[in-house]
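Predict the 3D structure for this chain.
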Amino acid sequence: MSTFLLIHGGGDVGWYWHLLVEELRARGHEAVAPDLPDGDDSLTLDDYADVAAEAVAGHRDPVVVGHSFGAYTASLVAARRPVASLVLVAGMVPAPGESPEEWWSATGHAESVRNQAGRDGGLTGNDDPYTAFYHDVPRELAEEAMSRERAHPSPTAWAQPWPLGAWPAAPTRFVLCTEDRVLPPDFLRRLVRERLALVPEEIAAGHCVALSRPAGLADLLTGVGTS
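Done. Predicted structure below.
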């Protein structure tokens, strides 16, 4: 049995993972999905990592999973304590000294979005969150997710350089969503190759895969199969 520490992305809460938590527990694993703090403009990346690490303080060698912006927090947790592995799901892979705010321009994200939007008729990068983020999520779930949005990360964390000098030594995996309209697949394949020297594992899903394909994601995370 493994313990999974599930770290949500920007604007989100631990609820984002609730369907995946059920799937992991049904497979005999434990899963912890904390709400990272909000409501304080002085909160830092380190503060988020403190809260996330504390959530599994009594667990040995958890699997740390970070979604989207949660990759910043997940990587710091993996650098602080022993973990079984680090898994990024549609994650923002930071470089040393690169803040979340700088990440978008440093990685060439905007150009990749324009290119993909030109191919899919403007679906990628669409201003409508139900089109860009939740296009494959059941509408009721998507509406609940939207109702739970909040101010995370803080302005301080958004502007804070990623404090590590190199990627953590923990075994690392990357799960890429092939229908992602926020972080286009070709963009992430390149970024993961350049920054992690990895070939991503892929699942046919949009950006919010834990809501749209929780069973398939659980299979990937537990090594049952691929999608």
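Residues 104 and 110 are 7 Å apart (CA to CA).
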